[in-house]
Amino acid sequence: xxxxxxxxxxxxxxxxxxxxxxxxxxxxxxxxxxxxxxxxxxxxxxxxxxxxxxxxxxxxxxxxxxxxxxxxxxxxxxxxxxxxxxxxxxxxxxxxxxxxxxxxxxxxxxxxxxxxxxxxxxxxxxxxxxxxxxxxxxxxxxxxxxxxxxxxxxxxxxxxxxxxxxxxxxxxxxxxxxxxxxxxxxxxxxxxxxxxxxxxxxxxxxxxxxxxxxxxx
Length: 217
Fold this sequence. Notes:
Strand content: 15-25%
CATH architecture of the largest domain: Alpha-Beta Complex
CATH superfamily of the largest domain: tt1808, chain A
Radius of gyration: 17 Å
Number of helices: 5
Strand order of the largest sheet: 3-6-7-8-9-10
Distance between the termini: 48 Å
């Protein structure tokens, strides 16, 4: 994917390039544009409770929320049940990072089919250079539309087959099969794994079930 990070002349330019994110999410040491994979591993293995992604040499804090974490855990659980039953591959969570072409990303949930594993075995790298079949991003309040659009471009450019964008506030899932081809599914509709996870189906509302704990039925 072609990038224009070098064209940014101000911090505002750089923030816009990163997807219009808030400046508080950008780590200044190492300086933006100079961070390496080793820096990313170091900051994510430190006592800092936040997780960072590496985007064209810039360490960017992942936007997170408790709501998004709960929903992501449910999606992971449902996918893991199906994938494990048929031994289809590996399902990872938000601290499972993948080296893409211009960034290293940690989607909330990801599925990698067995045939995408080098040699068919579990990868030994901390952040492996393999491409998931399915990526799930659960939106947090700090995410911007431009940021998520950029992520989709990166995922599909790397070879991801399907991207789910899960909106907790409005309780729908946008299913992307390319950066621009999308279906929006509401709570009462059924979502499937498409070509990424053939045979998987779930009710969209099940993704959000835990958010209703304590509410009158």
